[in-house]
Model the fold of this input.
Amino acid sequence: MIKTYAFPTYPYVRSADQDSAAPVRRPVVIGGAGPIGMALAVDLALHDIPVVVLDDNNTVSVGSRAVCYAKRLLEIMDRLGVGERMMQKGVTWNVGKVFFEDDQVYSFNMLPESHHRRPGFINLQQYYVEQYLVERIGDLEQVDLRWKNKITALEQQDDGVLLSIDTPEGPYQLEADYLVACDGANSGIRALCGLGSSGQVFQDRFLIADVLMDPKRFPPERWFWFNPPFHNGQSTLLHRQPDNVWRIDFDLGWEADPEEEKKPENINARVRAFLGEDVEFELEWASVYTFCCRRMDDFRHGRVLFAGDAAHQVSPFGARGANSGVQDTDNLAWKLALVLKRQAPAALLDSYTRERLQAADENILNSTRSTDFITPKNDASRALRDAVLNLSRRYAFARSMVNSGRLSLPSVYADSSLNTADTEPFAGSMVPGAPSTDGPVQRNGQDDYLLSALGNDFNALWFIDHASLPDAADMAILAQLATQALPIKTRLVSPVALDIQLPAGVELLVDHLGVVAERFDARPGTFYLMRPDQHVCGRGRSFDPLRIQTMQGTATGH
Amino acid sequence: MPQLITDNNLAVPDDYYALLTELYRELEPAQCQDVNARLLLLLGNHIGDMDVLAEAARIAREHLPAASTLAKDI
Ligand SMILES: Cc1cc2nc3c(=O)[nH]c(=O)nc-3n(C[C@H](O)[C@H](O)[C@H](O)COP(=O)(O)OP(=O)(O)OC[C@H]3O[C@@H](n4cnc5c(N)ncnc54)[C@H](O)[C@@H]3O)c2cc1C
Done:
């Protein structure tokens, strides 16, 4: 049905591993080349870890799946090298409107505070994201992406996993130090491990239709209707995607017959009732979904790790599936790389489970609450929901209760054992465990952003000014930090440009607007240590190399 | 921690009770449910203290008669 996108077919290529008498051993095998498996593959490659990615299919995601990508995902994609492509193609939107029955009850602007490189959200079809990741992987020698390779069996060993793989040319086996299961919501790897994922199935069905329309008819905004006259009092969502494609979600209720609803004439009738007689549209794709929220008890099972939908699943209200899955890989990649390089104990991987279980619980809580608001479960809940909507026409307090999906924000790992607690007072939100905020800086006289200047290493931010310049001894320490076994690359943050000689691995960022210092509640002397996934390890008011080393040790499970 | 007041806190309790019965005058059951919901939302926001509200919610569900003894359309 899809007219606006030609699905690529990636070739199956025979690997030399298939001809080996004994199973070849690989450090990391990733099961599944969805957005999560591929993001992990790119991330590990950036950490110089060779990876094999196996996918049972030979193309990108077909059908109506993820649309909304939040700021944090875009920042991670920047680090992985596909953020800019996503931005170029995606539709940036900021305005959301809520309608109740016949009227608009209010509209809101999602525009985050200014001075960030990336917006709150963009909309982009999932197949583009996957295509960009496949192409990015093409640049990376360390990634061996094998299409039409299906994992069919696995055996946990003391120090690895033995995998059986099916291909168009027959089966073969591989050994892996670690297997990461990114094989989606119905994870076969999870089943092969005898593990489950438990939670709640929502007794409701949704028709998700993508339609091609004249872009002049609707602006790039998110419109959500509760009880609209054109759809028997159930909710409807309209969202714009690139290529003049609009996503429409219709709540159908539990009684709906999916087979009937999927018939093109019935879909067209619903869309027609919604858009009116005079709007031209063509159907690109439609599916009927039932949603659920569930997760595994643990995302690590010996040498098998789980990420993305395989580990946890949410209903799409709030756009937390792919957004949180990519945060899983952001969290896992550097830890797995350190463990494989023997720079951290294997127990560091347990912090992946702890931190991302907390995030999964937050996401499940938020998306369950949104789903409960959108589809009330009994008459009293419906009365309560409708009362909120009625009051929201006139009273501000009720507007903050209207929940058509709370859009995805990254988790703060506030209780993580990898954090070092503050010993001095700090204000603001950059607490240990928080993902780094962004802000404009100048690098070598060029306008840029803080997050672009933080790489895949541990980074220290040391706030200085012309009155508190690091001396020669400090510079020698910074040089040593940047070249030690587990490097810490310092970014000196100064309000003005300084003419100083910097050792390799140390960079000056000019915080010319003072936004960065303000967001970090920094004064001259303040330092932060950031993990490779740009979460804060710890901080202090005066630069203390010993303390930084200890913080890094804590953050790597030592 | 602020606590839910369970001793009388109203100058004229009968006035409040009358206010509530007035609220339902000539309303259909579904409208009563709507009015109740609006009132709960307005009062909850005014109180603004989750501990107090949670305590009130807990007490409200205490000693509920079994569902079968309640008239169906309430
Ligand atoms: C209607 C809808 C709307 C959504 N909207 C959003 C949104 O707006 N924002 C958002 O962030 N998320 C959204 N999501 C969720 C998002 O689509 C998923 O979270 C995301 O696709 C998960 O990626 P994944 O890589 O974990 O799994 P998948 O995308 O399912 O990929 C799994 C891959 O593993 C492969 N595979 C499976 N089994 C094997 C095997 N045995 N061997 C080898 N390979 C295997 C599959 O072929 C597939 O390529 C939405 C989902 C739906 C259904």
Summary: Chain B has one domain: 13-73. Residues A 31-37, 54-57, 61, 64-68, 126, 150-151, 182-184, 188, 208, 289, 308-310, 316, 319, 321-323, 325 surround flavin-adenine dinucleotide (CB under 6 Å). The radius of gyration of chain B is 14 Å.
